[in-house]
Each structure stands twice: as C-alpha cells, then as structure tokens.
Amino acid sequence: MDYVYGPGRNHLFVPGPVNIPEPVIRAMNRNNEDYRSPAVPALTKTLLEDVKKIFKTTSGTPFLIPTTGTGAWESALTNTLSPGDRIVSFLIGQFSLLWIDQQQRLKFDVDVIESEWGQGANLDILAMKLAADRAHTIKAICIVHNETATGVTNNLSAVRNLLDEYRHPALLLVDGVSSICALDFRMDEWGVDVALTGSQKALSLPTGMGIICASPKALEASKMAKSVRVFFDWNDYLKFYKLGTYWPYTPSIQLLYGLRAALDLIFEEGLDNVIARHGRLGKATRLAVEAWGLKNCTQKEEWFSDTVTAVVVPPYIDSAEVVRRAWKRYNLSLGLGLNKVAGKVFRIGHLGNLNELQLLGCLSGVEMILKDLGCPVKLGSGVAAAAAYLQNTIPMIPSRI
Amino acid sequence: MDYVYGPGRNHLFVPGPVNIPEPVIRAMNRNNEDYRSPAVPALTKTLLEDVKKIFKTTSGTPFLIPTTGTGAWESALTNTLSPGDRIVSFLIGQFSLLWIDQQQRLKFDVDVIESEWGQGANLDILAMKLAADRAHTIKAICIVHNETATGVTNNLSAVRNLLDEYRHPALLLVDGVSSICALDFRMDEWGVDVALTGSQKALSLPTGMGIICASPKALEASKMAKSVRVFFDWNDYLKFYKLGTYWPYTPSIQLLYGLRAALDLIFEEGLDNVIARHGRLGKATRLAVEAWGLKNCTQKEEWFSDTVTAVVVPPYIDSAEVVRRAWKRYNLSLGLGLNKVAGKVFRIGHLGNLNELQLLGCLSGVEMILKDLGCPVKLGSGVAAAAAYLQNTIPMIPSRI
Amino acid sequence: MDYVYGPGRNHLFVPGPVNIPEPVIRAMNRNNEDYRSPAVPALTKTLLEDVKKIFKTTSGTPFLIPTTGTGAWESALTNTLSPGDRIVSFLIGQFSLLWIDQQQRLKFDVDVIESEWGQGANLDILAMKLAADRAHTIKAICIVHNETATGVTNNLSAVRNLLDEYRHPALLLVDGVSSICALDFRMDEWGVDVALTGSQKALSLPTGMGIICASPKALEASKMAKSVRVFFDWNDYLKFYKLGTYWPYTPSIQLLYGLRAALDLIFEEGLDNVIARHGRLGKATRLAVEAWGLKNCTQKEEWFSDTVTAVVVPPYIDSAEVVRRAWKRYNLSLGLGLNKVAGKVFRIGHLGNLNELQLLGCLSGVEMILKDLGCPVKLGSGVAAAAAYLQNTIPMIPSRI
Amino acid sequence: MDYVYGPGRNHLFVPGPVNIPEPVIRAMNRNNEDYRSPAVPALTKTLLEDVKKIFKTTSGTPFLIPTTGTGAWESALTNTLSPGDRIVSFLIGQFSLLWIDQQQRLKFDVDVIESEWGQGANLDILAMKLAADRAHTIKAICIVHNETATGVTNNLSAVRNLLDEYRHPALLLVDGVSSICALDFRMDEWGVDVALTGSQKALSLPTGMGIICASPKALEASKMAKSVRVFFDWNDYLKFYKLGTYWPYTPSIQLLYGLRAALDLIFEEGLDNVIARHGRLGKATRLAVEAWGLKNCTQKEEWFSDTVTAVVVPPYIDSAEVVRRAWKRYNLSLGLGLNKVAGKVFRIGHLGNLNELQLLGCLSGVEMILKDLGCPVKLGSGVAAAAAYLQNTIPMIPSRI
C-alpha cells in the first residue's frame, strides 16, 4: 500500500501536514471507543482546559471540531457574523486569498486590503479605514497570522493597538493555522476574538481536528449572528458542554488521545521553548538561504516567518522542479509555490515536532537539488551558515541534562 | 492515559463508532505525508473508484469529506437544495429528528411525516403527498435508511417505486450512516440521488470521514442550489478532481490509508458476504431478545434492522442502568436509549467488523446484566437461541478452507 | 500479509501466546533506540525492581533474557548444576517431558517420577526419594508448576514442605511458564530457587523474553556449576548489573517498553486481583465442561488449573478436528492435544489479559463446534453454567466505580 | 514512559539496533496469534525460502532463532564443533574478542590471530597455519566479516581462496552481524559454512531474532558435533521443518511478520541496490571525516567498512564526550569507542534503512559537536565533501520516476 517506497525516512518539510512525534502516533494506535461512556468526557474535559494554554487565553472557549482549517474558518465566520456584514480582510497570499473567497461566498461584504505577495498586511490602510468608520460598519477584521504561501508573519499586536486607538469594536478574527503552537500568539493580551488552527500543523497531529477558540465577546456575538450554520454551530457544542457529555456528534477517539499526547509533549518541552525552537529553525533556514545567494520571498525582516520560508529561485529554474526532484531523488518533501508565486518559489516548512539536525539534513538536500538544477550553490554553504548559528544557540535537552 | 482501564478487551457494541479491524489500525499507524506529492493522488484515485462499490453505483460521484455524519447530511442538503425548498422528511427516531432539525435550521420548508418510534417511515402518507403534489413543489425526499435509535430499517425500494409511480422528480436523499456496507443498499437500482455514511460505522474506521455519493441528477441540481456552502461545497472537490490533485484542503493521510485497507477487507470478504454476515448477527440478536422474553423496540418484522437492535426493558428497570452496569462490571459498551425511548430501551449495535462469537459474548453479558438488575432472564437462554441459529448458518471462512 | 483473514477479532484461547492488551501493543509501537544511552538503563532498573513482584520475591535476582521458555529452562539448569548431577524431575505431560528431555541432553542424571497424564506430581515418591537420600545426592528438584498440556497445577508448597521435612538441601527449580502472573506463586515463601516464565504467557506480551528469577542460594550455586554456558550465563548479566548498563548484549527495546506497560497494567489491576480473575475464568470453564457432560483431563480437583483446561472429547471425535473447525469456521484458536493426549483432548487457554465475556464467547463457540461434530451438547448449557457462577462473582472494575 | 523526551526525531546512528522502517513497524503492530494454526507455518515457509536470498545461498539451510547475535554465535559453534576442537579465530576488535571469549568458554581450543585494532584479519598468518596443518587439526576458521568496533571489513573471498589453495577442509564460520544485508556477502560463492546475523542490524528490525544459515557441509558436521546444546540445537528445528510446523518452540509472531515486511522492502529496493546504497553512505562518511581532518580508525582502504565508521578524535578530546553531547544536545545517537579504543574513537553507524539526507543531518551534527568540544572543525566542511560525492551518485528512487 506504499506505492512509492523509498529507503529511509521521508524528510517531511511541507508546511503541513507535519511530522507526528512517535509518542503521538502511539497514543492514536487504538481501537474505537464509546464516546458516551464516562471515559471520553473525562478525557475531553482535560483537553478543553489544556488547549486554552496554546492560545494563551484563560477567558476563551475552545471548540474541537471534526474538520480542517477551512472548516475552522467557516466556523469562525458563521458563528460571529451575519450575511451582508462588512469585514476587512487582508490579501497577502494564497491562504488569505482562499479565506477571502470563503468570506465572499458566505455573503459577507468583504473590504479587501491587498498587499504584494511577500509583504505583510498593510496596517496603514487598516488605520485609515478604522479612522473613517465612525459608524462602526466594520464588524470584523480577518487576518492570517502567518501566511503559509509566502512565509509572512503579520503583527497582531499592532492590529489590536489600532483597534484600541480608534476605539473600534470590530471583532478580531485570526487564522493561526501555521502559527499557533509555533509562533508567539497571545489571544487574551492581543484581544483576539476568534483564533483557530488545525491539528496537522504545529500541534503535529494528523489532519481532522479544527481547533477554534472564542473570546467572551465572540460568544456574545454568536447569539446575534444570522449566518446559517448547523455543523459548525458553536451553540450545539455549548449545549453539550453544559450536559458534561461534550460532543454533539461523534468525535475521533484517536485524535482525542492524540491531542492529549501532543499537548503533554508541548507542555513537557514548555510552550515558550517550543516557540524558541521555531525561532531557531526559522533563523537557521534564512541564514542558509542567504548563504546560497537566494532571496526570501518575504520582503522585510519584520515579516519573517519562523514556521515557513518561501525561497525565490533564479528565473531560469522552475521551482516546481525543485519540489519534484526533492521527492524523486532525495525522499524530501518541500512545498510548492502557489498561485502568483507558482514556479517562482519553493517552500521549506519548519514547524511542528522537528529538531535542528532534521532541518540541516533538509538544507543539505536543498543544496544538492539546486545544484542538480544548475543553480551555482556551493554545497555545504547553507548548512554551514545555519550550523554556525545553531551551534551557539541550541540548548541542552532538559530531560537529558 | 487510559483513565478507565479494565482487563481484557472492551466489548464494543454501540452502533458506532465500531471495532476497527487490526489490519486497518495497522494501515493507519503512520506519519503524515505531503498530500500534494504524486503518492496521495494515486491512492485517492483508487479510493474514489472503489468506494462507489459500497454504494452499488457506477454513475455516482463520491466525495470524501473530513467531517462526520452530521456534516455529510449538511453536504447532501446544501449542495442540492435552496432555502425555502419544500422537502418531505420522515421522523421515526432520534437521528431522523436531528436531521430534520438540521433541515429546518438550514431554512428548508420541511414537511415532516412522523411515525411512532419503533415504526418505519409511513409511506402511505408519502404516497398521498406525492399524489397531491402535481406542481412538484416537493424538491426532495429525505429518509434515514436505518434509524439507529430504534433499530428500524426503511424500505428504500418502496420509496423509489412511489416516486416512479407518481412520476415525481423529487430528489431522493438517503442517510445510510448505519446501513451502507452492512445492509443491502443499491444506489443506482433504487435511484438514490444522494447517499451518505460515516467512516466510523460499518466501514469500521475511526470517525472523521463523511462519505457522500451523488447521482448525476444530484450533481445537476447542485448547479442550481442556492444554499450557502463553502466547506461542504462539492464544486470545490470537482475542480480538484479535474486537476487530478483531488483535495481542495488537507485530507487525513491516516484515514486515506485506513479506507484503502477497510475497502480491501470488505472486498476480500465480499460485500454481499459482509451483508449476509450482518443478516446473521441481526437475526441471532433478535432470537436472543425473544428468548429473554423481551420486546424489540422495532414493531414489525419488515423494519427489523440487521445493524442495531433496540431492546425494550421491563418497566421496573432503567435501561440506562443496563448500559452503565455493562461498562462498569463487564467491560461491555452498549447503546443508550435516546430521547423518547431514554430509560426504556438499550441498544446492541451489531455492525462493522464483527463476528459471531463476539456477539455471543455480548449476549451472555446482557443476560448477566439483566439478571443483575432483577429481570427474570434465564442465563444461557438468549445465547442458546442465537447459537442454534448461527450454528446452522455460519459459513466456513473462505481463506481458511 | 494476512493470509487467512476472517472478519472480526480472532478469539485467541491457546494457552500461549496470549492476547496482548492494547496499551502494551501501543507501548511497543516504536523505533529502535540506542541501548547504551542513559535512557535504557534507567528503564531497565525499574523493570528489574518491579519484575520481582510478580515472583513475590524480595531476595531474588531477575534476569530478562532474549529467549523463550525453552531457553529460560536451559538458563535455570546450566547456571545451577553440573553435568552428571542427579536431579529429580516429574513427568506429567508434554511440557514436563520436554524439560526432562532437555535435562537429559544437558547431561544431568535425571531421576524421573512419572504420573499418568492428567495427574499431578507424585509427591509420595518424592518423599521416599528424599528420605532415602541421606547423602544428598539429589542436587535439584525440577517441577513444572502448571503443566500446560494437561491443565494440571502442582502443589509447590507441599514440595517445599517435604524438602524442609527431610532437611534436604536440593535446589527447587520451577517452570512457572503458564502460572506466574496468573496463579498464586510465592517464590520466597515457598523457597523456590529458580523460577521462570516467558513473556508471551500470563504477562501478555509477544514472545521473546525469558524471565528468570534466582534465589541467593541459586546464585551461590551458579559459582560452582560446571555446565558449559555463555549466552545463558547469569554471570555476564551480573557484571553489567554492577556497571549499571545492565545488558551484556542487545535487548529488544520494544519488549522492554512492553514489559513496563504490562507490569503497570498488572499493578493497576493488582496482582492478587489478576490471580482472582484467573480463578474465576478457570472455575467458569470447568463448570461449562461439566455442563456439557464432558470430562476434564485433570483427574482431581486439587490439580485443577486456572490457566488452561484440557477437555476430553468423546471417543468418536478427533479433538484435532475441534481445533481445526474452531479456526476455520469460528475464528477461534484452541489448543491441540499433545503427544499422549493427541486427538483425545483439546485445550482452552484462559490466561493473560482476558475477561469474562471473552471467555463466554469462546465457550459458546466450543458448544457449536461440538455440535457440529456430532457431540450431543446442549447449546447454551455451558455458557449458562459459567455465567451463573460469574454473575455472582465478577467484581466491578475498580477504575469505573 | 519516555523518560528522556526530546523534540523531533532521534537521529539513530549507532551501528545497531538501527532505524526500523515505518512499514515494518506497522507490520509488527499486532496481537499474538496461535503459531500452531495453518497461518504461521504458511508465513514461515516463505520466510525460510526468502531469507536465503540475503545470504546469497541456494543450498544453505536457515534457522530463525529467538535470540540475539551472541546466541547466533553460540548456535554456529555448538552445532558444528566438539569441545577441544581446534579453531582459528581472528582478534581485531571488541566483537571478535567477545566471540573468541565465547569460543574459549565453550571449551574449544582457540588459536587466536591478533591484529592491531583498526587492521583487518591477518591472512598471512592464516596461510602459514593452514600450510602447516597437514593433519587438518584446524576444524574451523571463525571470522567476523565486519568488525563493528573498529569499522573493519575482512576479505572473506581471500579466506576462501586460502582454504582452497591449501585444500583445507576446515569449516568457515562467519559473523555477518553488521554486514549481511548491507555489504556484499556471498555464502555459496565464498563457501561459507555458517553465516549469521541479528534482526536489529541491516535487516532493520527490533532485536530478538538470530538468523543463521548453514551449508550442507555444516549440517553434516552437526551430526558429529558433540558440543552440548538444546535451545540452540539445529536438529530440533530440522525435525519441525520436516513436519511442516517449523517451530520447536514459540516464535515471536511480531518478528515473523516484521521479517516478512523487511524482506519485502529489501527485495523491492533490490538487494544489490541496498548494498550500493550502503556503499554510498560509507564513502560519504569517510569523505566527511577526511574533510574534518580526522583519522579513520580503519588503517587501510581495503578494510574500510560501509556500515560503520570509527572516527579517531584528537588526543585532547574524550570520544565518550562526543557521544554524550550528541545525545544530550542534538538528539543524535552515536556509538561509543569500546575497550582498547574507548575514549579514542566514536562510531557512526550507517547501516540499515537509512538515506542520504539522514546521514547528512548526522554529519552536520557531528561537526557541531566537535566544535562544541574545541576541535577546529570547519562547520559545513564534512557535509560539503559528502554532498559533493552524493550529489553525483544518488539514483532516482525507482518507484517515483
């Protein structure tokens, strides 16, 4: 059933789905269970409590919905807004584009602020719009924390500051799909109203669980929101929360135990240590790209992403060929360039349960591929640059000191 | 992480999620993969082709959506209908009730035909409605093939015959959650327009995949359907089918490989043999219930379900106590009575990857529990009745002859 | 790779290898590790400490050898005895026979005390031999605690009493392969010098670990024992115990983690509760056999085994056909009759991680098979007899109360 | 239960146990089975036939013994030789030393030919001994194909040539523990009489199976061999081979299915491609060592090993500190220097299911560690040297072309 066996491990460096740690694979290696027995609610209770920590919220209400990031988006929007509502949304890459497409199809009045791909959200225009919106017609700001297509991280704290500055009551809805559990994210501090991620990203689980967290203000808004919704309706969950049985429909038993194991590993490492590790991996990758003489798709340092790096290839190379060759010759999985940057960039995902030597193996592979394709990269140059930084910064593994 | 360990296997006899066969657990015991590599589309292609066989359709188009049965319902409705559309829906138990609730919340004009719980769909009333509907205001008939709450199987062939008799063009939407892969189901022959099931039912996988199959007529309807939908929109799938990459958003790699293994097992056994096995298990269960002197919640033989049996307990017993005791003392998981039949029935699920000795172990447990609770059941009586039937009907295991 | 797939679970009722609990399968689902890293010794230390508890010894020294029960036998003999040493050994069935064969091939002077198969060790003859052996020429008594071929449990306490009565210094070597972790076994109290079991028996692990425990007297004897040995030499282990690295050669990482999980489950249930559970399963099985009108191969109640029951079939039936049919039609694995009782008995193993409903499922299968083969067994009779006893004795599962 | 969790994969580069491929882990993720059912012999038959291919023999008889390499050694010796027999054995490192120790304890008359550690077997002395041995007092030549402690591969073909040249009938016993399935090994062509390996080496399984292959001449010798043996006696296996039940005692079901999967992967890749891959990994490692300015413990190119490289550290560094630091900081497992070379060398195992990017990740880790410890290694230098070679030699993955 493995149609495409290659010797050794697959080096999985797409920005999701990411590597699942062995203890999590183990935890999910199990038969189904009756989700109405006392065991599953007892487990669920711990999950709902603990999952709030990865959002850095104490006041939020989490929902673990059997869906993907796309479904989580829909859940965030339909529970808080009504058709026709004006929302401001930033278009900076393929995933923000897809979210905007969803917003439009869900019949919201989407006010798009577009940036060049490779740039972050244009907050100056947001400021203008907020300033102009005395009537508070803007009901929500929708922003992707980390645009996975271009490797751009937006400044959420600055968005919050603008809202506060203009005393604007718009909801702040954040796609944290490729950020939460990897980048610094502070739901309560930044006044985020809905934040969401998917299990297959930095949590390092299989796909299948959309994880959404709603602020008290968002819950309040959900009472008025007129968008039609059933499967994604938070209210069905809230009813079962009250009953203590938690699930309006059947959850994946395996993902529940997997989430338990994933959270345990994150807390054992320490969430801030996890974030610091992503910081190291991101920086090391960027140093390698620089050493190769290539450009980062991300145009300014303030937007550099610690979970994904989009590398611009020279014009005489098709970046899709980098990805194909990685897979066909080196058992390495890289991310394609999407849409506007198709053929121009390939992406190195460096998020989730990953360590430095894995990354260095990947970088050495990228060097060989670039050389395969005629790019005058000096073998070892990127690895050396990354290693020089890492060798100074990698901490001892706490459990092994 | 197993909060409630008990020695030996858990005897899982809820009507879903059901026992996962070992080869399927094995197939899913794996790391994530890049779903944009050539491997996953190659696998997906075989799945889309083979999954049609469990619907007995050649003209249908399947969708494997990362959701549950509730989401599959929503997908069936929103892709084929527009708000305000009149649909006829049968209310015969908790799951048909939940579907009707969804239909109403999705803003359809639901014409409910209600039966007493324990009875099947009232087709006489349907006939009258069809006869009266010269203007074809009825856009769809929604029917649950097998009502999991009461163990009632509806006669889909008769529904088709009525539609044909009255030359009525209404779509036929079927919830096959607890029937497909277990009961005789013939999408093409019966002219079903949308059929759906969930991975955790007779397919014997974990929860997380809604499996929907649409007839050409349903696909045609989807072009006109005005219900708002994004995550559940078939069109997004169809676009990617054409591209040959298949997935508009990230699928669960584990469920894809699991589905491959599950289908392989079903085809190895033979789908008709699988259905015959469910026939044996259902009949054996009913014989046991009869031997115990208890009543089946299902009121007539024509509605008897081969996937779930709802057993009516004597009035002096709380059926929830049967379920609690099963779990607490015998490591046996039974289904609760729901809503109108709460406290009055408990349910034995006998679907999915299950064999006769497993069922007999369950039945012997039920006998002890009933005795525990003061019900004058003769120990061994139900097992004897079931075994007398099974001993005459169990075939040799083909691979072992 | 499953050449002989049958639907549903295999009902594994051979007296070894036995069912592995899911948490143990999970614990072993892992990659290899460097056994010279600090992690493996840390784990090993806990195992060596905790494994003593299943022998009920505080003074014994355990050895976890990558071998089977046959290898564990060889380890027990060659470390404590010298070629030519006189040993007294009881022949009561196939496994004691095989051990005696090994003893003879290892060049010991084996004084065999034979009983009819179905009887226990003849302790009267032992008493005579001990009484006569004023010169202490007998160096060891070798006894199988539970003869797996006939379902006979010997009285070890009585053996110890005889040795004490005659103040005889012979070593007491005990094969506890199908007893330890299932039957009452008290190494220290009974003055057992070497006790041994295999991982695939009541510990409910895969095959591959021979578990041996040596008393201080046995360790002392090992210094003088002249039997040639290398792989099985305890001394190589003791050297590495002192170094704190524990392993003279590579252990199975998977079995080490599996043993950790298996011990954890046993301690969670409570060793005495585990033994009581085996008592229930054994008694229930014997009641069923009686209800069927069949004979237990074990001739007297004092020898009844709570881990395996050898059932004598009527003369017109070939017991091997019972076993074949069980597997071919019912996905049930029973034990064959061996050697002298081949064709005459089949065996029901009821040891390891097993609960009551699993056993009742098995018993209902046996009833059908016997009927298949023309034996006038009343269906349900054995199950009823077993259930009548079990319904009065099964305790609540402690973690679920 | 993971006492020493570190984020990301463990980089396992000890020369055994090695990385288990995911499909093999999956194949072993299973419950026990009755090994006396028809299924296990059917599986075993294919294993015994196919395992001969990894020895490149058609005339040999394989034995799959539940033991480790140490037990496989004992099996090879005791089945072919009698106490007092003169054998010639080469001492070139820790593992040949341990084998010689075993030979002596098994009471053979061991004629040791010693080389400096880092050199191969001294065949000149062997030639002299053979020349002098007109009386054929030498009964066997024992040689380690690949000395795992020093990374030295002996020339077996040359040994065979000498035996032929002197028409000497001595048996040729070969420890292939770290060579078979990784280095070129030709049992029939080289007239090897007993060859052996362990499951946890290049076969990439867990520890627990000693795999021995005996030539017809070795089987003949076993009829006369007077060494005492029971557990390791080939004759017990041969009896059961004739019966078609194959197993004199319980095998590990999991390892049997694991071996099936491991062989399937090896044959899919192609045994000669597997060997070529090891050739690439070995060469790449040596190029890195050279680029670092360090010495290979192996003194001449003719002895270079493609499965393990022992790297000599500068005198001011303790090689054990390299290993400790690898594990504590980089989640990298390297091999210690043993005995005479303790503190002086560390070892990189590059055998089993491993690919080039994994190795490059390891090499980049070694560079950082060496720098950590004050060794003036240029970061990236070894990786660059290895990559320059690999980039020219890695083939496309056949299944992905």
Automatic annotation (TrEMBL), chains A, B, C, D:
GO cellular component: peroxisome
Keywords per UniProt: Aminotransferase, Pyridoxal phosphate, Transferase
Binding sites annotated in the UniProt record for substrate: 347
Pfam family for this entry, one: Aminotran_5
PROSITE patterns: AA_TRANSFER_CLASS_5
Residue ranges of domain Aminotransferase class V in the record: 47-296
Gene3D superfamilies noted in UniProt: Aspartate Aminotransferase, domain 1 (3.90.1150.10), Type I PLP-dependent aspartate aminotransferase-like (Major domain) (3.40.640.10)
Keyword Nuclease belongs to the record: no
Record InterPro entries: Aminotrans_V_dom, Aminotrans_V_PyrdxlP_BS, PyrdxlP-dep_Trfase, PyrdxlP-dep_Trfase_major, PyrdxlP-dep_Trfase_small, SP_NH2Trfase/AEP_transaminase
CDD domains named among the record's database cross-references: AGAT_like (cd06451)
Names of the cofactor(s): pyridoxal 5'-phosphate
Gene Ontology terms describing biological process: glycine biosynthetic process, by transamination of glyoxylate
Modified positions (N6-(pyridoxal phosphate)lysine) in chain numbering: 201
Top enzyme category: transferase
The UniProt record lists the keyword Transferase: yes
PANTHER family in the cross-refs: ALANINE--GLYOXYLATE AMINOTRANSFERASE 1 (PTHR21152:SF24), AMINOTRANSFERASE CLASS V (PTHR21152)
Record family assignment: Belongs to the class-V pyridoxal-phosphate-dependent aminotransferase family.
Descriptive protein name: alanine--glyoxylate transaminase
Origin species: Phoenix dactylifera (Date palm)
